[in-house]
Design brief:
single chain, about 140 residues, alpha/beta, 4-stranded mixed beta sheet, 3-stranded parallel beta sheet, 7 strands
């Protein structure tokens, strides 16, 4: 079962964001999706990525992305290599254009792994939710593979 939460009132589409309720849904094995931009998630002046990183503070941040640059780095900066794993700092150093530096830094400081994956590829969202290797894992390893 999946739950959608938002800080803005959209009763027909989502229940209100309440941290304890979100945690309880996760404890019950439910997937919790947070809707809207940073401000609608209760964090004005934050990007969607940073607001999502704040919400992921005890888990993993799954970042579905689109476009040809699937691994979060501009074309040509990595020879278009498909990284399975990259460190937070290496991602920032290579000039990620798929997530903002504030979100990556927050995740690094709080040891929150980030998974960047192509959400347009059929089955990838389910695979990411199940913990399968999909896209690029960003964590502390410091190795590129």
């Amino acid at each position: 079962m999946t739950r959608v939460q938002a800080a803005l009132k959209v009763q027909d589409a989502a229940e209100p964001y309440i941290r304890q309720r979100a945690i309880r849904h996760l404890e019950k094995g439910r997937v919790v999706l947070f809707g809207g931009i940073g401000a609608s998630m209760g964090n004005p002046l934050f990007t969607t990525d940073t607001a999502a990183a704040l919400r992921a503070s005890e888990s993993v941040l799954l970042k579905g992305i689109t476009g040809d640059s699937l691994y979060g780095c501009p074309p040509g900066s990595n020879g278009n290599a498909a990284f399975e794993r990259i460190s937070y700092r290496e991602l920032v150093a290579r000039g990620s254009n798929k997530t903002d530096v504030t979100a990556v830094t927050f995740c690094e400081e709080n040891n929150i792994p980030v998974v960047l994956f192509n959400m347009l590829e059929p089955g990838n969202i389910s695979r990411a939710l199940c913990g399968d290797q999909v896209g690029t894992l960003v964590d502390w390893t410091g190795r590129i593979s």
